[in-house]
Amino acid sequence: MKFNSYPIVNHNGVAIATEMMLVLSQKVHQQHLNEFNTGKTLNQLLGIVKKIVINSNGSIFNEKHTLIFVNIERASLCDVRGLNQIRELSILLRHLGGNLVVGLTNANPCKRCPRVLQGLLFLKENDILLAANDFNYLAQDFRDSELKSHLYDFVKLSMPNTDDGMDILVEFIHSELVLNGLKVIVEAVEIMDHLKSLDKSRIYGYQGHFVKSKKAKTILAGA
């Protein structure tokens, strides 16, 4: 496993958040999967984020950059110790001028286990921001009812590779959910046309290789 961080930029190409995650290597042994499922990697990731924030004494945050996204599996919502660690990290980040956003992956091994929903509600009740990662807006996503119940503060959508997909994306970012405060982050922005084809006023942030370039910042700033 290795630790990676990825910027999220706003309409002006300025970094407003950082996404932090542990990435499993391609050669994953069953032992690593078992450790992942038992929450050891979650503990490791939260520990890394905590160390980075403490060592920076909060300087990682500024007027624009206030959020740290941490991705977890839905199965981790059943881990009481993990939930309490998330709560503690959220309190620390707020104390230092930032905010934690918990991103829930789109894997659903637990199906409709009620403990998953209990974990979601626990985070919500503790004022921890939530993001639905890799939301399938092109078809029926299993988290659709959770999204419509306003459990999530952010939704992450990947750029489509077809015209029909682009039409559906545009329709989504003009939906009532977004109008009522759901923040959209568009991922996999890799070429100039991606930025030019979307209404900037409807999108909270962007991710992808292209958004880090000077050309992207020029387009986002409307120059």
Order of helices and strands: EEHHEHEHEHEHHEHEH
Note the total helix count: 9
Mean pLDDT: 85
* Beginning-to-end CA distance, first to last residue: 41 Å
Question: How would you portray this structure in words?
Answer:
- With 223 residues, this protein is α/β, with parallel strands linked by helices.
- The protein has helices spanning 30-37, 40-56, 80-95, 114-125, 144-148, 163-173, 176-179, 192-196, 214-220; strands at 2-9, 15-23, 67-72, 99-104, 129-132, 154-158, 183-187, 205-206.
- It has an eight-stranded mixed sheet with strand order 1-2-3-4-5-6-7-8.
- The chain is globular and about 45 Å long.
- It starts with a strand and ends with a helix.
Q: What are the defining features of this structure?
A:
eight-stranded mixed beta sheet, 223 residues, globular, alpha/beta
Secondary structure layout plus pairing:
Layout: E1 2-9, E2 15-23, H1 30-37, H2 40-56, E3 67-72, H3 80-95, E4 99-104, H4 114-125, E5 129-132, H5 144-148, E6 154-158, H6 163-173, H7 176-179, E7 183-187, H8 192-196, E8 205-206, H9 214-220
Parallel strand pairs: 2-3, 3-4, 4-5, 5-6, 6-7, 7-8
Antiparallel strand pairs: 1-2
Helix pairs in contact: 2-3
Summary of the model, kept short:
The protein has 223 residues and is α/β, with parallel strands linked by helices. It contains nine helices and eight strands.
